[in-house]
Please model this.
Amino acid sequence: MNSNNNVSIIAPKISVLVPVYNDIGRVGQCIDRLRSINYPRESYEVIIIDNGSTDGTYEFLQERVKEIETETFCLLQCLTPGSYAARNEGLRVASGDYVAFTDSDCLVSSDWLTSLLECWNEQQNDIIVAGKVSFFSDSSKHTEQNALDFENMFSMKQEQNAKKGECITANLFCSMSLIKKHGGFNEKLKSGGDVEFSRRVVSSGGKVVYSEKAEVLHPSRNKSELIVKRKRVVGGTWDAELSKAGFKRKLRFCIGLLKMFLGRTKKTCLHSGFSRKRKTGLIWLLLLIFFTSLSEFMLLQLGKEANRS
Model:
């Protein structure tokens, strides 16, 4: 087991990093949850990194952090586009023995940090903890039924991610020494930098473990947000490997998109809890996502720049 003092006796310092970009309507709720974490206040810090917001988010955060009047919360600004550049900026000033990541639209559970640390203590060697991500309905926007069904069936499956040696930064935890050992995140990636980091750790002998108790709530995305996210994911894959890959690798990528579409369609058809109408709606969305992925790939092939994350 990883050596550490019990959290109930001596609570080690944890740095919580939250990148934010044009999220003025939701980041306040994220901060409220982080303020009420069931963990000694002097033993964690929250570093919020604005990534060049243009909607007033940075100005809002300046006032909000000032109102909190505590050294627990720190606000930075990173003007290099991309959430992974913002996270790396936060890592440069973080002082914790451990680091936990979440997103500005997420709501952490009260025992989030305690559960992450307990899971880490039960393991050995180089460990990334992938905490559970659940979805809630965002009342501030319209979310279509097929989009909600998509989220619940296919999005952010951290237990499955962990089995594949992957983790997403909506709920990622590791020691500070581990992330610095691997040089942080790849800032060139617009999407998928968390998965790429996880794979680097695993390839060097580490592993990803899942924590059911360390839960984070994520707002369900609507159809247009899912399409935008899909473009970012394809762009991240392009930047990470496809831009310099040969014809065969690019062909395998396109075949992979088709296999994913067919696999998800089959899973939808076999879902006993969905009516025919819901199945049809979800399959239509899957088809839209498939063609969006292909068209984004072709545009990137023609010289389009990948979307920022």
User: Anything to note?
Assistant: Strands lie at 14-20, 44-50, 73-77, 98-101, 107-108, 127-136, 172-175, 207-219. Residues 166 and 195 are 5 Å apart (CA to CA).
